[in-house]
Design brief:
Elements: H1 9-30, H2 34-59, E1 63-67, E2 71-78, E3 83-86, E4 95-96, E5 101-105, E6 125-127, E7 136-142, E8 145-154, E9 161-165
Antiparallel strand pairs: 1-2, 1-6, 2-3, 2-4, 5-7, 7-8, 8-9
Length: 166
């Protein structure tokens, strides 16, 4: 008896299902979801501030948070020079936000934009060696989402909070 050459219908369908699942996973990993991108950046920033607060306490530093809206960085206060200097730790250095994400400082318990500090001379918030944090209200928005934002804030006593605002 002659054996037929080729693949059975079941084998072809199985290959198609595998390809579809892989394509779906790739599309999820690549991105394209502005809500997820915004959430990811909010989580990253809040974790950075928590780590920086621990670092300030452990090393006895005053760390200031600076931002120009498209990037942010922590700086250490040099008492001898009475100025803010870049942090040498790569984890705490300047970070550029994705192009569509905007960081804005707002007045505490308000939607009013905070007036910018003179150039980059004054930090938006300070993490102190004592473990204290100056009150702050940072807002992350996405250019493609008019109705969504993430707020990272602290009243200075209760820690750092992240919340989504629809």
């Amino acid at each position: 008896m002659r054996r037929a050459r080729g693949f059975s219908l079941l084998e072809l369908m199985l290959v198609l299902v595998i390809i579809a699942v892989m394509a779906g996973l790739v599309s999820l990993a690549v991105g394209g979801n502005p809500h997820r991108e915004l959430e990811r950046e909010a989580e990253r920033l809040s974790r950075l501030l928590e780590v920086a607060g621990e670092e300030a306490v452990q090393r006895g530093l005053q760390l200031g948070f600076f931002s120009d809206g498209s990037s942010y960085a922590l700086r250490v206060y040099a008492v001898d020079d009475a100025r803010w200097e870049p942090v040498q730790d790569r984890r705490l250095g300047r970070y550029r936000l994705p192009d569509n994400v905007i960081l804005e400082a707002r007045e505490q318990d308000s939607d009013a934009p905070r007036l910018p500090a003179t150039a980059e001379e004054l930090p938006l918030m300070v993490l102190m060696a004592s473990g204290e944090i100056t009150p702050f209200n940072l807002v992350l928005t996405h250019r493609d989402l008019a109705d969504a934002e993430y707020r990272i804030s602290s009243d200075g006593f209760s820690g750092i909070f992240v919340r989504a605002v629809p």
